[in-house]
Amino acid sequence: MRIWESGSAAAELNTKMFPELFLRSVSSFSTIAVDFLSMILRRIPVLKKYMEQTHQKTVIFSQGKTLPCIAPLLTTVEETLQVVSARVQGHFPEWLNGCLLRVGPGKFEFGKDKYNHWFDGMALLHQFKMEKGTVTYRSKFLQSDAYKANSDRDRIVISEFGTLALPDPCKNVFERFMSKFEKPAITDNTNVNFVQYKGDYYLSTETNFMNKVDIETLEKTEKVNWRKFIAVNGATAHPHYDPDGTTYNMGNSYGKHGSCYNVIRVPPEKSDLGETIHGAQVICSIASEEGMRPSYYHSFGMTRNYIIFIEQPLKMNLWRIISSKIRGKPFSDGISWEPQYNTRFHVVDKHTGQLLPGMYVSKPFITFHQINAFEDQGCVVIDLCCQDDGRILEVYQLQNLRKTGKELDQVYNSIARFSPRRFVLPLHVNLNAPEGENLSPLPYSSASAVKQVDGKIWCSYENLCPEALEEEGGIEFPQINYGQFSGKKYQFFYGCGFRHLVGDSLIKVDVVNKTLMVWREDGFYPSEPVFVPVPGANKEDDGVILSVVITPNQNERNFLLVLDAKNFEELGRAEVPVQMPYGFHGTFVTI
Ligand SMILES: [Fe+2]
C-alpha cells in the first residue's frame, strides 16, 4: 500500500530523503528480494514511504519491465447467488450501514460466439452489504432479454456496441442474407450504471432501455423503454439529481431535420406506486452541429441553474450506423474521432429550458465523465476529465485488454492519459466587449474565455493538477461528495489512476491547493471510488471512500476497501473468495 501527498511537505521529504543510489540498488534486486523488502517495510510505517517511492521509480524507468497481464479481470465469471460473508480486516465504521451496488460486464461469450469489446459483456450486478461492521457479498447476472435470448440459443443473438450478432447458422443462405435487412434488436444489456428515478433504482446503459431492479435481491423487476414516454432514442447512464429528487438526463433524437441532443427532466414524485419515468419531459432540444453526424457523449454537467452539454468531435455517423448490419459491422464502426472540429459547450437554463446564446468553443478534446460544475461571479465553472485523442474507444477491445508483455505495453502507450481540466464559461457576454478580452473574472482560475472576431467565446482550460498526476497515469472515474457538493463550489474529488488499462490506484485531488493523495497496492486494481459522508457531517471530505479492489492473481483475494476520505488511510478491507471482473460504475445506498 502506498500513501503520499504530492505538492506537500511529505512529498518533498520523500524526494530529499531517498537518494538515487539507493534507488538503483533496490531496482537491481531480484523480484523475490524486493518482495521480501516490501514485506518488511510494510511493517515499518516510517520507512514505508521510501520503499514505495522506490517502487514507483522502478516501474517507470527500469528497462524491460512490462505491464502485468490483467486478462483474468476481463473474463467470464460465475454469479454468486448465495450471500457470502466477507473476512473483515481492520474495521468498517459502525455508522456505515448500506449497500455498495456496482455493475459491469461479467460474461463475454455464449457458446462459440465471443464479444469483441469490453462494453459488450453481459451485465453482472454486485452487492456489498455493510451492517454494523460486517460485510456480505452477492452477485447476479441481469436477466435482460439480451441475456436470456443469448443463453437460450447458446450464441450471441443481440448485437452490442462492438459486436454484431451474426445470422442464425441454421438458416439457409437466402434467409441469412435477408436477415441483414431486418431491423436490428436494440440491446437491453444495461451494464454501465445504477441510476435513480423517483427513488427507484435502475440499471442503465445508453440505449432506450433501462432495467428496474430490486436492490435487495438484485432481481430485475421491470424493463422500461424511454421511447414510450418521450421522443428520445436513449439517455446517458449518468443522470444528475436535484436535492428534491428531480432527475435530469440527456438523450438523442433523430428526425427528418437531423439529430438533436435533448435535455430530459423526470419529476421526483410518483402519483401511482407502479410508476416508472412517467412525467418525463424534454425541456430543451439542441440541434447537432451536423444533422447526420451528432456527437457521442457519455455524461453532461449540471449546476444549480444550468445544464452544460459538451459537443465533442467524437462523431456518430448515422448512415454508417444504420447500414452497419448490412455492411457486417458493429455499431462502434460508426463512431469516429474528428479533431478537425472544435469542442463546443452549450449551456441550458434548467428552469426555463432556454439555450443560452453564448457560443463557447475550445480546441478539440474528449471527455467521458464530468467531475463537477458550479456557478461563480456570473460564470459556469465546469471541471472534466479530458484528453486530446478521441480514439480511445477502439483501444478497449477485449483482445487488446487481454494482451501480455510488450504487446500490452504497446496498447497502453497508444492511449493518452486523462487529466482534470477546468473551463470557465461567462454567462452574460457583453456584446460590446472588445475582441481578445478575457471575459472570465475569476481570480483563482487561469482558465480563460476570450471573445473572438466571430463573436464566439474561445475557452482555454486550467489544468487542475498538472505534474504529479501524470506519474499516476492520469485520472478517470471521478467522484465527489455528490449529496452535499454537486453543483457547488468544492475542493476535493476522487478517482482512479491509470498506470494500466484499468485503474491501478485511488487518488484524492484537492483542486484548490492542487495536491493529491494516492492509495495503491501492487497487483491490485481498484474500482471507481464512491464517497460516503459521515452522517451529519458538513466538512466536504468527512466520510469514507469505498472501492472494490480486484486482482488477477489467483493466490490473492479480492476485497472491498474502505479508506478515510480525509487522509486516505485504510480503515479496513473485506475479503471475498470470489472472482470478479473489472466493472464500470456503482452507488452507495443507505439502509
Ligand atoms: Fe461512465
TrEMBL record:
Purpose of the protein: Broad specificity mitochondrial dioxygenase that mediates the asymmetric oxidative cleavage of carotenoids. Cleaves carotenes (pure hydrocarbon carotenoids) such as all-trans-beta-carotene and lycopene as well as xanthophylls (oxygenated carotenoids) such as zeaxanthin, lutein and beta-cryptoxanthin at both the 9,10 and the 9',10' carbon-carbon double bond. Through its function in carotenoids metabolism regulates oxidative stress and the production of important signaling molecules.
Catalytic activity: lutein + O2 = (3R,6R)-hydroxy-alpha-ionone + (3R)-3-hydroxy-10'-apo-beta-carotenal; all-trans-zeaxanthin + O2 = (3R)-3-hydroxy-10'-apo-beta-carotenal + (3R)-hydroxy-beta-ionone; beta-cryptoxanthin + O2 = all-trans-10'-apo-beta-carotenal + (3R)-hydroxy-beta-ionone; all-trans-zeaxanthin + 2 O2 = 4,9-dimethyldodeca-2,4,6,8,10-pentaenedial + 2 (3R)-hydroxy-beta-ionone
List of residues binding Fe cation: H238, H298, H369, H585
Coiled coil (UniProt feature): none
Predominant cellular place of this UniProt entry's protein: mitochondrion
GO molecular function annotation: beta,beta-carotene-9',10'-cleaving oxygenase activity; beta-carotene 15,15'-dioxygenase activity; carotenoid dioxygenase activity; metal ion binding
Protein name as it appears in the record: Carotenoid-cleaving dioxygenase, mitochondrial
Subcellular location: Mitochondrion
Requisite cofactors: Fe(2+)
GO BP, one annotated term: retinal metabolic process
Keywords attached to this entry: Dioxygenase, Iron, Lipid metabolism, Metal-binding, Mitochondrion, Oxidoreductase
GO CC annotation: mitochondrion
InterPro entries in the record: Carotenoid_Oase
Similarity remark: Belongs to the carotenoid oxygenase family.
